[in-house]
Amino acid sequence: xxxGIELGGTKVLVLRARGGTVVDRETIATxxxxxxxxxxxxxxxxxxAEAPIxxxxxxxxxxxxxxxxxxxxxxxxxxxxxxxxxxxxxxxxTAPFDCPAMxxxxxxxxxxxxxxxxxxxxxxxxxxxxxxxxxGTGVGAGFAFNGRTVHGAMHPEIGHIRVPRAPGDGFAGxxxxxxxxxxxxxxxxxxxxxxxxxxxxxxxxxxxxxDVASDIAHLVSTILLGTAARQVLIGGGVGMGRxxxxxxxxxxxxxxxxxxxxxVDDSSIGRIVMTPLLxxxxxxxxxxxxxxxxxxxxxxx
Length: 301
Description:
It catalyses: D-fructose + ATP = D-fructose 6-phosphate + ADP + H(+). By secondary structure, the protein is an alpha/beta fold. The protein has ten helices and ten strands.
């Protein structure tokens, strides 16, 4: 039996799985670190008493310290989420259990699940490299290359990349750190600021969506050029919730790349820039995939 925890800003999903098949799940509201993590541990202890947990995978919102050599490994770094900076995510969730465990960002986990069981597994030639972008309250991205997630000094923070602006777009941006970085341009709160109304009230025909599509496309083009990912998946409430936006993004990507990447053209772009095949299950299944990798790594060692 494997355990997966997807720790989000508003809710936590705790899962029990047999291999890649989820057999139980419980949802917990994200409140304070003490309350939230203790409730998750209580679920794991109950399940562990019924059938021993062989490995634990944790996919969490960030930023996180993911360097295992660091004294604060698995700890939440400074975050806008009140009260969560300095929370020991990994230590609190794994200390009661004598089993291998792995922690990563929720978007890295989602990328791994999509590579293994979702969009990356489509067709006769499975993908070896994939980027998963979520556009919602913020903008984040995870990368899975050659079966492993990507991080180094930190984990990727592509939400704070700046992109070329569409001609005539005077929106100043909404990020408190960088103004018009991509998160400050296309996240849910940024769109509400840009359009002057909540996201669900914005007219799909509003011409300012063309500027939003251009911004997202520049991010996708940067990822394709900078990482050589074979696929870029766009998820989250904005990414998956706007009919027609993905088509505009695809057209913009082809134009922006100008034929420089020979594998990206009008006929291939639909297979390269997609919505997540696993939908909103990519994150939870990502936590399970991390547990599977923790168990596999233990066997190798």
